[in-house]
Each structure stands twice: as C-alpha cells, then as structure tokens.
Amino acid sequence: MPQSQLFAPVTIPTRSGEGLKLRNRVVLPPMCQYSVEKRDGVPTAWHLAHLGSMAHGGYSLVITEATAVVAAGRISDRDTGLWNEEQVEAWKPITQYIRSQGAVPGVQLAHAGAKASTYGWLKDLADAGKVGSIGDEEGGWETFTSSPSELYGLKPATQMSTAQIKDSVQDWAQGAKRADAAGFDLVQIHAAHGYLVHQFLSPLSNKRTDEYGGSFENRTRYLREIIEAVAAVWPENKALGIRFSGEDWVEEGWVIADTIQLAKELYGFGVRHFDLSSAGIGKFYGPSGPGYQVPLAQAVKEALPEDAFVTAVGVITEPAQAGQIVGTGQADGVCIGRAALGDPQWPNRAAQALGAEMAAPAQYWRGHW
Ligand SMILES: Cc1cc2nc3c(=O)[nH]c(=O)nc-3n(C[C@H](O)[C@H](O)[C@H](O)COP(=O)(O)O)c2cc1C
Prior knowledge:
Elements: E1 10-12, E2 20-22, E3 26-28, H1 45-56, E4 61-68, H2 85-100, E5 104-110, H3 123-127, E6 144-145, E7 158-159, H4 162-182, E8 186-191, H5 196-201, H6 216-219, H7 221-233, E9 239-245, H8 256-268, E10 273-277, H9 294-303, E11 309-312, H10 319-327, E12 333-335, H11 338-342, H12 346-353
Parallel strand pairs: 3-4, 3-12, 4-5, 5-8, 6-7, 8-9, 9-10, 10-11, 11-12
Antiparallel strand pairs: 1-2
Bound molecules: flavin mononucleotide.
C-alpha cells in the first residue's frame, strides 16, 4: 500500500450503520491547554483558535483536550469541562468551526481521579515551582480514586464508595449527552495515563476488595458500566471511542493482553475507535523513541474485527513514518500531537510530501502550496 494511503478517506462505523466519514487518517490527539482563565471549565477563544487551526491544518478528526465530566475530575483548575450548560454553549462555535473546515469534532471525556487538583503543566507555573497538587490555600480540592496509592506522588485521594462509583458512571453519561448537544460527533473515553478509569483498570493502583477490584472482570467493571451508560445516551449515528494505556510498562501492571481482552468486550458495546497510548501509573521501564507505541496499536488492530478504527500515537513526527504505519497496516490512522504544536499545518505539509491531494485552506494557497 502506498504511503499516501495516509490521506485515503476512512469511515468509523456507527451503530446506525451510516458511519462517520474522515477525510484522511491524521488525527489530532487530546492535548490539555490549561487555558481556562476563569477556572470554570468553559472553553475560551484560545480553544477556538487552537483547535480551529488544526482543523484548517488538514486534520480529519480533531479531538479536544481531556474535558472533565465533573469539576472534581479536572487535572487542573484551568481544564475544560462538560458538566454544565454554559460549557455546552461555549463548545458550540468551536465544533461548528471545526466542521466548517471539513474536519470532525471529537471530545475526550475525562476524570483525573487521584491525579486531579494539580497545577497542570504550563511553563510559567513550572518555572515558578508550581508543580504537583494545588495547595488547599490556593483552592485545591478533594480527589477520588479506586483505592489510595502513593504511586502518583500527589496528595492522598479518597477511596470511592460503591454509591460514588454508581453516581460517577452517570456523570460520564451526562457528559456524553452534553457533548452531543455541543455538536461533537465522536466521544473518546479517557481510560489512559493513570487517570481515574486507568486507576480502576490497573492492578498496581486498584487494591479494592469489592466488585470493583481484584479480578480482571472486577477491575474493568467501572469502565464497562461507563461505556454502557454512554452508549445508552450517545446518538447511534455518532462514533464511540476509547483511549487506552495499552501497557503500564511496570512489573505486575496492566499489559497488552488485558487491553486486547477489554478492547474486544468494548467492541461488543459499540466502540469502534481505539487509540493506543501507554503508561501513567508507577515507575516506567518501557520503551521510547519514534513510533514506540505502534506495536500496541498493531496488536489491538490484529485482535479486532476489520472495521475498527485503530490509531497509533507517540513520537510520530515524519510524513514518511506516518505513511508507513498506515500503509503497512500497522494502524488505521495516526495521531500527531506535539509535532502539530510546532506546525498546525502538519497534515497539509505531509500530504504534499507524500504526493497526496491537499486540503490546505484556499486562503493559504499563496503560502507554501
Ligand atoms: C501539551 C500536552 C497535553 C496533553 N494532554 C493530553 C490529554 O488531555 N489527554 C490525553 O489523553 N493525552 C494528552 N497528551 C498526550 C498526547 O495526546 C499524545 O499521546 C502524546 O503527546 C504523544 O504523542 P506525540 O508524540 O505525537 O506528541 C498531552 C500531550 C501534550 C504534549
């Protein structure tokens, strides 16, 4: 398959059968911007400009940063949210703009669990020594998790009761309902990077002894319940996705065989987009370097029915590299994250480099094209 297969359209199946059409296989992965100045979860002009530039940069699927389903689930107090109507209204012009540029708006719904209530990762804050948990005097809030753990190096979190878990499942469903109202066409459940769902999945962080801990079936119960609750409210003509940490890369941790088993189960609930990242809990001993997570995507892709849209992510920076991953069938699409922060026109340039038809906006034709 030629490298320009990267720019062949693809359809993510939906339960209605219609499918969600993507103009190419280059996806913008979620990237926190920590830019909600008013600390109210409402996206701002920055989010419109940032995500909008990626839409006219040629991405086919533009996924928002981790967007909290409840205020307590924010990584930082500058995260976006979808727990109220004001946030829905503020997302609407953003999804409309993304769509107007030929891209599909997707949202990553998230809950940070024990990794909430931090300063986030902005250079000016880090330079000022503001890293880790926000102090109580600065508005830090109570955090919640599967079971308390010191693995995060943050302030202690409270173990969720069964009733709190049940309520939390409904928070995800309400978030999905609002995501629909806000105009998103794809919802991605954040089950990666050591955040709340992953805190339940991984045996490193989940030491519960009730029906939400212990066996694989129990540790995955919270996520299965979330997916079922989201699927019940998410329109059938829209796409359901998940982001996994395919491996913890830690001894005794969550491994790719677990991911494959769970991915198959979630496929049964209607999930069709699977994005394979890794790590986030405990001391990391895994690989790194160009394309280091691609084998995780390939393993999941090989285990799922052909119509699943499986994406690879992580240090994919070169057009030929991206083209090869898709062209050789290791993944159905690629996420280009940090490279896009340096060049939001990455997909348009890659198309040119690989000899594919370009989607560069007409307004920019006197630039490089
Ligand atoms: C600034 C920044 C913010 C990020 N925020 C998120 C996020 O909100 N949710 C998430 O799942 N991953 C997040 N990530 C991880 C990226 O989605 C991506 O997986 C990672 O950067 C590796 O891809 P890359 O090498 O193409 O950048 C973030 C990464 C960066 C650099």
